[in-house]
Write a structure and sequence with these properties.
The radius of gyration is 21 Å and the shape is globular. The protein has two domains: about 180 residues, 3-Layer(aba) Sandwich (Rossmann fold), CATH 3.40.50; about 55 residues, Orthogonal Bundle (Helix Hairpins), CATH 1.10.287. The N and C termini lie far apart (about 40 Å). By secondary structure, it is of the alpha/beta class. About 50% of the residues lie in helices and about 15% in strands.
């Protein structure tokens, strides 16, 4: 597996506390090893499957741990370079976890619905975001005092609808450098758009999906909330570490100038 190319960062020496990777037992307790029924499997997941038990495929957690290292390293380097990573999870059991995780590190996210063209037709999406921001501005500065209550209510509802779908990407002005996905089969449109644009792809990949579609697949149960939580938490820690290294580098440069 190849890491992202950030050669200018490879030899930097930061004094940052390293994140704690989940242990084999923690992954086991979170049910990360439970895959799908054998009849639903994708044969390309064979290298990541340990065994079959009662008709269900069991993920090899040793491979999961190896892939976590690669994915975390990619996340850290991207964050350290100052680029954005888009979090995507529209499944009910993942929405809250992923939205909170992304917010905690200032990353964009989509957890309600992926609009077709959200990345490949980003210019149009930006127009919708601008419309939402304009409504916010009008509501805040009192410029809607001349409209009727019904018109104001209609605008407020339109704004809330836009916020629900686009709120997580409202503050980005360009296409993110990478995307982190929970369940690439469920989010196949998001994956296809990100690959078309050359974004780095990092994802939890269950036994019913094709890991070859992702730059950094993490073989894991992508249906159970505990499994999603533990994997997402580790990815967030990797980003935090990258951001800390970036800030440390800035401080060292500023200190060198003075």
């Amino acid at each position: 597996m190849c890491y992202p190319d950030y050669p200018e960062l490879e030899n930097t020496n930061f004094n940052i506390k390293k994140m704690a990777k989940p242990t084999y037992k923690e992954l086991l307790d979170a049910g990360v090893h439970f895959g799908h029924l054998k009849r639903k499997w994708n044969p390309k997941m064979q290298p990541y499957i340990f065994m079959e038990r009662k008709g269900i495929h069991i993920v090899d957690l040793n491979r999961t741990l190896d892939c976590l290292d690669e994915a975390a390293n990619a996340m850290r380097q991207i964050a350290r370079s100052g680029k954005k990573i888009l979090f995507v999870a529209t499944k009910k059991q993942a929405r809250i976890t992923v939205a909170e995780a992304a917010r905690s590190v200032g990353m964009p996210f989509v957890t309600e619905r992926w609009l077709g063209g959200m990345m490949t037709n980003f210019a149009t999406i930006r127009k919708s975001i601008k419309k939402m921001n304009n409504i916010d501005k009008m509501l805040a500065d009192g410029s809607l005092t001349s409209v009727t209550k019904k018109e104001k209510l209609t605008l407020t509802r339109a704004r809330n609808k836009l916020e629900k779908v686009l709120g997580g990407i409202a503050n980005i002005n360009r296409i993110p450098a990478a995307i982190f996905i929970i369940d690439i089969t469920h989010e196949h449109i998001a994956l296809a758009e990100s690959k078309k644009l050359g974004m780095r792809t990092i994802a939890m990949v269950d036994t019913n999906s094709d890991p070859n579609l992702v730059d950094y697949p993490i073989p894991a149960n992508d249906d159970a909330s505990k499994s999603i939580n533990i994997i997402t938490a580790y990815m967030v820690e990797a980003i935090k570490e990258g951001l800390a290294e970036r800030n440390s580098a800035k401080e060292e440069k500023e200190a060198a100038r003075s």
